[in-house]
Design goal:
By secondary structure, this protein is α+β, with helices and mostly antiparallel strands. The chain is built from 7 helices and 6 strands; from the N terminus they run ββαβααααβααββ. The protein is about 40% helix and about 15% strand.
């Protein structure tokens, strides 16, 4: 976990929390809360508002912070912490020496669904089975028909068609507009 040490107005990124705490301790600062790992810790730190302004203004105009503008004051501590935290995420921690290279653990390849594997099935009586039945009809199904059969809202029906049917099951669902303006969905092979 990347951590930051805040000594005076200098912010330094460290690869570990322990290294950040060591840097704070080596500086002679007694407050271990200046080894920051989150925005909440920054907001709760012992740094005064003037110090937060000085830290922010220290970033202004410096690469990789050349897009930041100096400020006179922050509206409140929460705003100061949020802006500084967002800015320091750009800092890079020094690289830690790596041990011997170890081959990555083998993982199972994700199975891609394809229509060629046969007609995807759904559990009998499930909402997925009901929707598939409607979409397999030659005239297809309107959004309102699917909504009334499943009790879902329109955005849920569209998400289901796109995600569960299109991406997960690999089916091709086509949408056409009728003359009356209603969308009709149906499966295409």
């Amino acid at each position: 976990m990347k951590a930051f040490s805040m000594i005076e107005t200098n912010v330094t990124a460290h690869p570990t929390v322990a290294e950040a705490k060591q840097a704070v301790a080596a500086a002679g600062d007694c407050d271990p809360r200046l080894a920051i790992t989150s925005e909440a810790e920054l907001a709760a730190s012992s740094l005064g508002m003037g110090q937060l302004v000085d830290i922010w203004n220290g970033f202004a105009g410096v690469v990789p912070f050349d897009d930041l503008q100096p400020v006179r004051k922050f509206t409140d501590r929460k705003t100061a912490a949020a802006r500084i935290w967002k800015a320091i995420q750009r800092l890079e921690a020094p690289t830690v020496p790596q041990g011997a290279h170890v081959a990555p653990k083998r993982t199972k390849a994700a199975k891609q669904a394809t229509a060629a594997e046969g007609a995807p099935t759904a559990r009998e009586g499930s909402k997925k089975a009901i929707v598939l039945e409607f979409l397999r009809r030659p005239e297809g199904a309107t959004l309102a028909t699917i909504q009334s059969a499943t009790g879902w809202q329109a955005h849920s029906v569209r998400g289901f068609i796109s995600g569960a049917l299109g991406k997960k099951m690999g089916l091709t669902v086509t949408r056409l507009k009728r003359d009356d303006g209603a969308s009709v969905y149906f499966l295409t092979e």
